[in-house]
Amino acid sequence: MTQRPATQRMDGTARRAQIRRVAAELFDASGYRETSMDDIAGAVGIKKASLYYYFPGKDQLLVELHEEMIDLIIAQQQERIDAGGHTNQQMLLAIMTDLIRLQETHPGHLKIFFEHFRELPPDVRASVRQKRDQYRDMLVTVLSDGTRDGSFGDIDVDLTAMAVLGMANWTYQWFRPGGRRGAAEVAEYFWSQILTGIAPA
Amino acid sequence: MTQRPATQRMDGTARRAQIRRVAAELFDASGYRETSMDDIAGAVGIKKASLYYYFPGKDQLLVELHEEMIDLIIAQQQERIDAGGHTNQQMLLAIMTDLIRLQETHPGHLKIFFEHFRELPPDVRASVRQKRDQYRDMLVTVLSDGTRDGSFGDIDVDLTAMAVLGMANWTYQWFRPGGRRGAAEVAEYFWSQILTGIAPA
């Protein structure tokens, strides 16, 4: 991690986003508990007092990292629902792409999301859990609607949702941005496998 | 967690296994860092000095939990290879079943395995990583051999291995032993989905 110079005239929203991004990288590289507010301030290139102005503590950073993530993918799927015109097979691909692309747009965040959920304050944990359920329900709806309209065969939608989430979310353990295959390519490959299977045609 | 009475005349191997099992449950329920050696001794129903006789510290417990897990699934697959007579499609089902069944035979272990790997001492981490790679290679071999003998179509074996591991390992986030579907049933359902897909026939 190289030290980042503090950018002049960065507005509050941009600064918060910058701090979240840098903190996520540090948490990912060194661990949440092992990373101090000092480390974060140093990596952002601001004084510790300035960091505390934006985030009263690491907990608040952890909360925002969780909420940013889940709010983003919910909004992406909601936009597609509102826009209309997608088949359920296309919706499934889009959801898988959204999830895997987080590894490129938010490197390190998903690891924090999955492994530090327990450390969120109870009220935030409840809110994040409710949104996770909401997102899973969005996926289940795509699978249910698609079963009715002939996009998918006669499937157990709950188990299929867990299979899809498993393929997509597990990328947090192995996918590295900038590698041989991009997120969209991996998503499309997984999607084609879950659609048509790996047995010979 | 109810307190367990210390069993009389338990031999060393059985006692170590009992301690590992109880510790895994506590780590899973309360977190690795939040669980003390006192908590573990109390839950097993032995004196703290006895616990230290078997495990000089929590680190050693974490090490054994990791090694127990990975050694077990490697041995299970190696036995099948040695026995012979399995098709590659059957081998794939067996691997997925082995992985998901860990949720029933070793509840809580997989969460520890995936989320506390970083906290292992470096030499142990290297050893566990090498065995994880060995296990992934066993899966890749099944997929490669199966592509050659016509069990599977023309697949990218490395990406397919990640899809399979994702479906199976992600169960650590949602599967609860004693629920509506057992591990073998979930494994068979996921296996049939990855084999033949969810698109209408």
UniProtKB/TrEMBL annotation, chains A, B:
Superkingdom to which the source organism belongs: Bacteria
UniProt DNA-binding residue ranges: 36-55
Transmembrane regions: none
Keyword field: DNA-binding, Repressor, Transcription, Transcription regulation
Residue ranges occupied by any HTH tetR-type domain in the UniProt entry: 13-73
Pfam families named among the record's database cross-references: TetR_C_24, TetR_N
One MF term in the entry's GO annotations: DNA-binding transcription factor activity
Protein name: TetR family transcriptional regulator
Lineage: Bacteria, Bacillati, Actinomycetota, Actinomycetes, Pseudonocardiales
